[in-house]
Amino acid sequence: MQDPSRWRFFKRGWHLHRRTGKRLHHAYLTYIGMTLLVVLAIGLWGYIQAEQIEIIKLRHPMPGLEKPVRVMLLSDWHLGIHPISVSRAQEIVTEVNFQKPDLIVMLGDYVDALTPYDLSIDQVRLALQGLQAPGGVFAVFGNHDGWYGRPKLRKLFKELNFTLLENSHASVALPGVSLMIVGVEDDRTGSPNLKRAFAGLSSTTPTLLLSHDPVVFTGAPDRANLLTLAGHTHGGQIALPFFGPLTNMSRASNRWSEGWVDKPNSRMYITTGLGTSILPIRLGTLAEMVILTLSPLSPSPNTSAAPLHR
User: Which of 189, 216, 290, 296 has the CB geometry, 3.0–4.6 Å to 211, for a possible disulfide?
Assistant: First the structure.
């Protein structure tokens, strides 16, 4: 015969276990719910932040330059993924023209090749066709352009009178200005060749080197009258406080994610670009368009930010 007191002991234990289990289950569900809410809030904030574009104003001394030249620097449009729709791109083009730069340089990834939408070349034309500057529009390709299709972009850029540089160089058509633009291919979908790009170019001529990926700076000539301009990194797109970018998607160091990078005699500026890729969010780093004034007189570069003109 079973001991009734022993049975009551096990019964109480079972009920206690059920009550404790329910509490733990409720606590677990509460924890999961709160975590999901936090993740959703962060994602929504990042989605909104991706829409914000700063106008960054820089000044850089360029030995040998006869007079100041205002350069508009644009990179990483990633048309087809939030926030850069065709209509948003047209707004950006309007802002660029409002700023009246002497010339425009573009550093690749005009289309996001990973978007689920099949963006037509006609839509790309609608997005970019208004860009204009007295000194011309100069462009290089990025990795997404290679995946999207360089031949159709080459044809479009020719129609739009953009000067496409693929391991080549061209002069700027501005009165009283001696300035060369060198452009190299992307290192993921092309074959960057600095020797070919600089072939026949005098080392005494003030020069801008355009590269989609900042890694090209490692092999670039180190001279004071050469400034390298790069994009690709999106500033990391997600950058954490005290840690910085999770990744910059470049073959270069994570330290080369945005802003100025120095060699003994030359510099590079890495722009955070306009759009996003993979995830349509930005955290800890804003999109930007850059107005770079090349000056023969300015003693040192400086930076300021202004809101996007509407």
Answer: 216
List the domain boundaries for the chain.
1-49, 53-305
Q: What is the DSSP code (8-state) at residue 111?
A: B
Sorted by sequence, the CB contacts under 8 Å of residue 6 that are 6+ apart come out as none
CATH fold of 53-305 reads: Purple Acid Phosphatase; chain A, domain 2 (3.60.21)
* Residue 211 β-bridge partners: 230
Report pTM.
0.86
SS3 content of the chain, % helix, strand, coil (to 5): 30, 25, 45
- 207-259 pLDDT, tens digit each: 999 999 999 999 999 999 999 999 999 999 998 887 788 888 888 888 899 99
Strands of the chain, DSSP E: 53-61, 69-74, 103-106, 137-139, 163-164, 168-171, 180-183, 207-211, 226-230, 239-240, 244-245, 259-262, 267-270, 287-295, 303-307
Asked if 296 contacts 59 with a C-beta cutoff of 8 angstroms, the reply is no
DSSP 8-state class, residue 107: -
Tokens, residue 22: 């329910």
